[in-house]
Each structure stands twice: as C-alpha cells, then as structure tokens.
Amino acid sequence: VTLDALIADLWAMPPYGLPYAAKTRLLAGILAALTRHHYSACPPYRAMVDAAFAGVDALSSATPLEALPFVPTSLFKSVELRSVPEAEVLKVLTSSGTTGQAVSRVYLDRHTARLQSIALVKLMNHFIGGRRRPMIVVDSPGVIKDRHSYSARGAGILGMLQFGTRPVYALKDDLSLDVEVLQEYSASHAGEPILLFGFTFIIWEKLIGELQRRNIRLNLRGGVLFHSGGWKKLKDKFVTNMDFRNAATDWLGVASVVNFYGMVEQVGSVFFENPAGFLQAPLFSEIIIRDPRTLRTVPDGVPGLVQVLSCLPRSYPGHSLLTEDVGVVRGRDHVASGMGGTYFELLGRLPTAEIRGCSDTFAA
Amino acid sequence: VTPLQHSLVSVVSVRASGLDAGLEQFLDGTADAVSDSRPFSQVRVDAAADFGQRLSRDPSLRGDVAATALAFWLRRGHLEQLSATASHQVPGEVRVPVGRVFHIAPSNVDTLFLYSWVVAFLAGNFNVVRLSRAAGELAARLLDHLSATFEDFPKLGAENVFITYGHDDEVTSACSQWCTCRIVWGGSDTVAAIRKVELNPHAVERVFPTKFSYGVFNASSYLAADTRHVDQNLFGDIVMFDQATCASPHLIAWIGRQTEYSAAVEKVARGLSAVAVRRGYEIDASIPLYRLGRAFEYVAKSEGRCEIRDEYPPFLHIREPDSAGLNRVTCGGGLIRHVRFDTLTQVAELARPEDQTIVHFGFGREELVRFAAAAGARGVDRVVRVGAALAFEPLWDGEDLIHVVTRSVRVSG
Question: Under an 8 A CB cutoff, do A353 and B132 touch?
C-alpha cells in the first residue's frame, strides 16, 4: 500500500470522524511509512534517526506513535531539511519563532502544498461549510507580497484566503486600523456569514483594542472569527481565552470565535478549538506530551512538551516534531461535540535554555 | 569633563562623595599613587582570609559549589603559601606590583572575577573590576561579604572598585588609560571588542579568549578501576556552571581498542548518571530539548555515523565514529561527546591554540609529561587530574597570573 493510498483513506472520512483508538491505528501505519520515506530521501534526517533511534528497520505499522522518531523544531533553523530535490521546491516558508535571529526554513513542493490545502479545506468545511464567504483579514496586505517566501504570518493568511471571497484587509501597512474599510464592508455584507481571520495578539491590540479606544462596536452577526498565533503576549497582560472570546463577541458582534494552534512546520494540520475550548487533533494529526526533563511520555493530565504528528509533510521531514510549546492532554474523543481524537490545552512555552557561554562578557 | 556613565555595584570603600562621581574620583585619586601596604603583606592576606571566612560561614552559600570552592581557595593556609611563593626573593630582583589593574570579568562564572581580583589585590595593586551586567545574585552576595570585610580594612578597601556598565567605551577607555595592566576574561568576542579601546602605552594586557576543554581517558584503566570517585570528579567538572566555562570538558578522548571504548563509554555514562542520582541533581527543564536540538544538529552535520545515547539522564552522550578527530563544537548543559584514539600521541597531535584544560585519567606520570609537552607545544594550557578542571590556579591559560600583576625590578650593586 502506498502512502498516497493510505492518505486517500483519510480524505474519505470526516476530519473528526474516527475515535482515538481507531485513528491511532491508521496514523501508525502512515507515520511509520513517512518516517521511512524521509529516512531515505533526506540524509541529515537519516543521520539523526540513525544516531538517536537506531534507524528505521524496526519500524512497522504496529509501532506505537510514541516510539516513532521525532525531531526538535529548532532543527529547521540549523539544518537544511529537505526530502525533495531543490528544483522541486515550490516555496519556502520561514519563521523566526521566539528564539531570535535564526529562521526556520520549511521547503514545500507541489504535492505537500496540495496535501496541506486539502487538509485545511476539510477542517474549515467542518466549521463553516463548503461555501466561500466574504472575508476580513485582520492584518495588512503587505504581509503576503512576496509570493515565493512567506513568513509564518503570510503563510497563515494565504492558507485562509482560499475560504474567502472579496477579502479586505482591516489594517493599513503601518498596522493601524482601517475603520472606514471595516465599517463599509460590514454594512455592505450585513447579516452575511463573514469570515474573519488574524493573529490573536494583532486582533487584540490592533482591532479590538482600537475599537474600544474609539468606542465603535461592529455588528458582524453571523460572522466567525478564526485566530491563532500564541498566547504569550496576552498572558503577560492577563488576557485569557475567555476574555478574548467575550471581547470579540462584544466589539465585533461575531457569532463565534475559534482559536487554533498550528505552526509553519506543519501547515494544514492545525488544531482547532472544540466547543469546550480545547484544541482538538483531527484525523491526520496527533499530539503526544513529553516530560521536558526526560523527554519520555507522560500520562494524560500531566503537562509537558508538545510533540506534534502530522500525515502531511512529504517534502521535508516535519511529520513528527518536538516543539517548545507546553501543553496538557485533557481527554480522548470529545463526546459532547462528537469530535473524535485527542484534545488538549496549550499552557505556554518552555523558557529559553540559558547556558551562559564563555564568550558573552561584553554582550551582556 | 563629561561625567562618566556608569553604575557602581558596590564601592568597597567609604568615600565622602556620592557613588556617581565615585569612579572618576577613584581613577584620578589613584593615578599616581602607591599603596601603603606592601605586596603580599600580612594585612592583605588577613583581609582576603577574612573574606573567605565570611563566605564559609554564610549558610545561604553552603549549597553553592562555586562559592564553596572560592571559600576553600581563600583559606588562610593557601593564601599564605601563595604569598610566600610569590614574594620569594630572587637575587638581583625586587618584585613590585604593576600598580593599577583593570579587570573585565566574564558573566558566566559568578566567582571568577574574585580570583582575578584576589591575586591582583594580594600583589599590592589598585583595582577596578568590571562585572557583567548579567552578573547574578551570587556575585551580589559575594560583594556584600567583601564590603563587610573592608569595613575592618577601610584603607585597603578604598583601593578597590567594583563596577558594572553596558557598552560604554568611555568608561572602558578611562579605565584603560588609567591602568597599567588590563585583564580581559570572557571570550574571543569580548577580547576583540576591548582591544579596540586604546590601552595606556605603559600598560600590559592579558586576555583570555574562548577556549575548548576536554578529557583524555585510558579506556582499559577506566574499565579495570573502581571508578566511583572518578565519576564523581568528572561529574563536578561537567556540571559546574552548566558546562559553560572555558575549562569545562565537552568531550572525552578515549585511548584504547574499539571494544574497550564501547564498554568504557557505557560505564562512564552509567557512572555519571549514578552520581546525579546520589546527589539528587536535577537538570533545568529548559535544557534537554535545547541540548537534543544541538545534538541532532551535530550528527546531521557530521560525517560518519554518530550514536546519541539518552538513556543515562541527566546527561546526553554522543558516541562519535572512529577517527572522528577532535571537533570543538560546544553545547553545554551536559552534552558529552566521546571519541576513540589508538594512542595519546594522536590526541596530542590534534591539539590547537584554543585548547585549554585537559582532564586525564589512567595514565602514568611520564606519559602525561610527554603528552603535556607535545600537546602544549600546539596550544594546551593545563593537563590536570579529573575533578580539577575548574580548580582555579594562578597558572591559567599558560601564564602565571601573579606574573601578570607584578613586575620585577632589577637591582645591582
């Protein structure tokens, strides 16, 4: 059975349609095959798997997910991880993360880009149905100007644009709010199920915050706000997910607010919030929580580092990544919403390792 | 005169003026002065020993390995021995202080500035010590004790200033013109930055650039020995200051056959892990993921097949393939690389100017002397028993610090 045939099985099912146990069996086969694929196609990946996981000979569809090789996401900053020839690279996604200067580089070919797109479509269909909607992007148009190399923000916006029609940008190039455009658009699409998308902190600061300052309430009833991008800055301001939801409903007038967790290293396989506010793993992804000290798995309910698994990455070995995010599994199969799969909560980020080197006297 | 922008951590002296003008006044006031108290005099030893005693009596420092090591180094007997050796009279020569020493201390070792300072202080110098702005709580605590000491030795205290400031060439320049000796710790980047600041033409300079340190172990001796004690010593060499000092070993070069090598790596990995358990050592949660990323990067960029061993926490080991050479990549936080050689001579031939401390186990005295001569000629500074990697000695990076902070004046009759 080829990888593509296995993936085709996934596409045949609704994104939250399988209970955890059945899904895990399906994923195990695909992820073991993906590991072999990258092992043979990407020499630096092979070196890592040989060094830390004794190769791939023992891998099979019976290998438990937690026994599959994984790679720290930081590797995309330090090593060129590519499983296709350079000529087949369609675009390169970049992200600086929070660690500073080094930039992640994620190489996409046509095939992987397509898989990502199919996955996202399936997920969005679950939330907003199959029709494209009028769309407000809460960002400036400048973010997606360069069409070959995208920032994480640009990649996120570009991915969402396919679900909108006649999109407008709520922010000007200096990230100030374009109130006129916003009011005009909401008036001309009054009552329509508008799709809004942006990054959590930008929405909070530049949209909701600005509306509050000017005391302008929008009436986007029927609208759905999707947002993503990390809570660190909002946590520092003591803003919770609930505060965010309430403020968004209050000032934008939207019918629902959906947070999601995703990363440039695994575009497409994102974790949307279920109605209870937990992040839900869809059919083609999974998460595993590991103890930050031992890197071994922990029982459900115990916080640790988030490892993300995805069936999509084909042109780069990003199908099993250990992130710096800290999270906790809250349960398997969300009964109330009928959504199958692991659901979890993100708690923050691992602090940067502070090993003070010998050569930093004057820099400090 | 433009007022100097700086902040004083602690002026270890009681001065009439406020702290802000303190440094400028200190520099002016000491520019052509000579201390009343002679080099290596009893009162200087007394003051340093008093400081050491305060450290060893402070219960809050008891658990701190670095502070404990400093207090031990400052014990009276040791200081007297150091002073006696240093003031040993050579016929036809008189040993005098260089006069004014400007120390630039590293940020990663909270106690190092005090070793550098104590040696210069005992030798009878005026001192300005620049601490990193990243200097931690420990440094502040140590300075509190030093201040307390100098309440009993006010005249000596007035000869020393401890300051901290950021990228301020004006302060660096003022101190560099004032001093007769500039000591720069803290790595190659710091050395390059400070060297751009002109030094008083009459001053000498001693710099400590970034260094690499490792171990040489005899595999068969290690396998044959009861290594509990060795492991304990090696553990200390590695974990002190998160393995981030110039003297911290990052790699063990094993001398032996392939089979011995494999067994020895296994044994030391298990042994180090056991020490950690006995001591209740717990690694900072931020380190393992970072370290794994660095290890993966290392193997991805290596030629030949490496093996990463993570089953002996809290350390991460990389077993390098045969004849992998001596790669000087460092990570810190308990990443230990292992590599095998047939003979000690092969290791000596790979020594380089950036090599500093080599800890050894399982070799005979003559073998070590031969090794030190061969490796030293290429750059190694210290070949010491395992456990002594971070033991501060005035003989550091190949030069006796006492010679750096003193001069010999020729007298003939």
Answer: no
Which of B109, B172, B289 would you mutate first to test chain A, the one with the most A CBs within 10 A?
A: B289
Within 8 A of B330 by CB-CB distance, chain A residues are: 357
pLDDT in the model for residue B199 = 96
Selected residues 189-218 of chain B with any CB under 8 Å from a CB in chain A: 189-190, 193-194, 210-211
Check if B22 contacts A (Cβ < 8 Å). no
Judged by average pLDDT, the poorest of A246-255, B4-13, B215-224 is B4-13
pLDDT level of residue A100 (50, 70, 90 thresholds): low
Average per-residue pLDDT for chain B: 88
- Predicted local distance difference test score (pLDDT) of residue B4: 35
Q: What is the mean pLDDT of residues B238-250?
A: 89
Asked if residue B162 has pLDDT above 90, the reply is no
Dump pLDDT digits (tens) for A222-258.
899 999 987 778 888 888 888 999 999 999 999 999 9
- CA A102 from chain centre, in angstroms, equals 20
CA distance to partner chain B, nearest, from residue A364 (Å): 6
Q: Which one of A6-10, A181-185, A261-265, B218-222 scores highest in mean pLDDT?
A: B218-222
Cβ separation A362–B300 shorter than 8 A? no
pLDDT higher than 70, residue B406? yes
The 3-state DSSP class for residue A313 equals coil
One-letter-per-residue 3-state SS of chain B: CCCCCCEEEECCCCCCCCCCCHHHHHHHHHCCCCCCCCCCCHHHHHHHHHHHHHHHHCHHHCCCHHHHHHHHHCCHHHHHHHHHHHCCCCCCEEEEECCEEEEECCCCCCCHHHHHHHHHHHCCCEEEEEECCCCCHHHHHHHHHHHHHHHHCHHHHCCEEEEECCCCHHHHHHHHHHCCEEEECCCHHHHHHHHCCCCCCCCEEEECCCCEEEEEEEHHHHHHCCCHHHHHHHHHHHHHHHHCCCCCEEEEEEECCHHHHHHHHHHHHHHHHHHHHHHCCCCCCCHHHHHHHHHHHHHHHCCCCCEEECCCCCCEEEECCCCCCCCCCCCCCCEEEEEEECCHHHHHHCCCCCEEEEEEECCCHHHHHHHHHHHHCCCCCEEEECCCCCCCCCEECCEEHHHHCEEEEECCC
CB pairs under 8 A between A and B: 149
Which chain A residues have a beta carbon less than 8 Å from that of B332?
Answer: 355, 357
Residue A352 C-alpha, separation from nearest chain B C-alpha, in angstroms: 6
pLDDT the model gives residue B241: 81
Residue A94 pLDDT grade (very low, low, confident, very high; cuts 50, 70, 90): confident
Please enumerate, as own/partner, the contacts of B192-195 that have beta carbons within 8 Å and a separation of 24 or more.
Answer: B193/A362, B194/A362, B194/B104
CB contact under 8 A, B289 and A45: no
Flag if B282 and A294 touch (Cβ within 8 Å). Answer: no
Residue B147 structure tokens: 């201040």
Per cent of chain A over pLDDT 70 is: 94
pLDDT at B167: 67
Chain A residue at shortest CA distance from B185: A361
Whether A294 and chain B come into contact, CB under 8 Å, resolves to: yes
pLDDT score at B9? 40
**What is the value of ipTM here, to two decimals?**
0.90
The answer, for B290 touching chain A at a CB cutoff of 8 Å, is yes
Neighbouring residues of A85: CB distance < 8 A, sequence distance ≥ 6: none
pLDDT band, residue B398 (cuts 50/70/90):
low
CA gap A77, A97 in Å, rounded: 9
A353–B301 CB contact, under 8 Å: no
Residues 124-143 of B with CB under 8 A from A: 132-134
